[in-house]
Amino acid sequence: MNRKELKPEASPQDAYGARLRSLREARDWTQDHLADLMDYSSVHISAVETGRKPPTLRFSRSADRALRLAGTADAFEREFRSMHQGSLLEGFPEYVKYEARATELRLYNIGIIPGLLQTPEYARVLADSAVTRGAITPEQADRRVSFLAQRQAALMRTRPPMVFVAMDESCIRRPVGGQSVMDAQLARLVEFAGLPNTLLQLVPYDVGERRTFDLPVNLVTLPDRTVICYAESQAQGNLDRESASVEPMLTAYHQLQAESLSQAASVAMIEQVRKGKS
Length: 278
Prior knowledge:
By secondary structure, the chain is an alpha/beta fold. The chain has helices spanning 12-26, 31-38, 42-49, 57-67, 76-85, 92-99, 120-132, 138-154, 170-173, 179-193, 243-259, 263-274, and strands at residues 104-109, 162-168, 198-203, 217-221, 227-232, 237-240.
């Protein structure tokens, strides 16, 4: 019997397959036995183990049931989502489900244009930079850009949500990807501000200590008027549904808007930056 030598370091898909084989063999199970438990063919099991066939969400959940890993830190579903969402912070995949149902979105960002407003070129530069730093793999970078495009497309529906965006002035002044990328990105912001369901405001530097947030914050209003909050640091994300802690965040967002430039003044500043006059 030919046994293919696995190389888990080759790619996330290969690592997934190697772990599946290791767990199966630790139980003294054959591929046929695992296939019966998972309701897949042994040929399919072999193809996933050797990295010839990519796992799916359904396959991962079935493996978790068979191996009794569902809901654990070692779950294959968790590994699958990490592979396909590009090392997203904890809580973010769940947040995106709420985002797609939102009737209102309130976004605040520092230093980087909010993802929902990024052009593909801007998003690609950020993803490739993460690859260069060794934070993610090239495959994860591709998935990250694709995932962002899916999020943006999900908001282009018959009745889109109202989207409020407050951006720190640093978002438009921090160069990303060179002049052509930034020019297209700033043009995209101006286009966004012209939509009937949006409000774009810049939080100028001179707000100083009156800036109410020091980290990116997303507030989502759902159809039942429930509001949830997602906030993240460099290392982790946190999804909060408790009204006792979400309501102060909503108040702080409104206070930030009161300190921000009007949309007209914000667009004027963006245009000045585009022309190199400011």
